[in-house]
Amino acid sequence: MYSSYGSSTNFVPGECNSGVCFNGGQCRGGYSQSCSCPPGFQGPRCQYDVNECGINNGGCERECCNSIGSFKCKCPQGFELAADGRRCTDIDECRDHNGGCQHKCLNTDGGFSCECPKGQRLHADGRTCIDTEPLNGYTRVNSSSLEAVVSFKCLLMTY
């Protein structure tokens, strides 16, 4: 029994005691000052993080992010983590609200695209369709571009 400032502890010099091991490690017992480390930690006192991502990308299909004592698999935009927590599966953006497309939504690997019916083209927003066919003489289609044809008359009003 060792006494310090009037308090009594079970500290026995030379034996592996509490406080020797870090990060949840357990003393191996006896006079050994080494510890049994929980998953994610290593070293004689469990003081070092294991970089799980450094070996086979942590088993992750795409991105592996190491953290203290653990790791996490991540997927790029357009994909979601599968139930196994390692693989990435494509998100079908067209499933929800037609992907925001005015007409047809086409799911692609990691994304989607919108299509318009014949006589229309995709607007700059990538989702809305606008007419390319003649419309009351104001719009016509050239072979490679759209061109507005507008005619007007000015009336001079005198007072």
UniProtKB/TrEMBL annotation:
Keywords: Calcium, Disulfide bond, EGF-like domain, Extracellular matrix, Glycoprotein, Repeat, Secreted, Signal
Localization of this protein: Secreted, Extracellular space, Extracellular matrix
Pfam families to which the protein is assigned, alphabetical: cEGF, FXa_inhibition
Domain EGF-like: 12-47, 90-130
Xref: SUPFAM superfamilies: Growth factor receptor domain
Disulfide bonds: 37-46
Protein name (Swiss-Prot/TrEMBL): EGF-like domain-containing protein
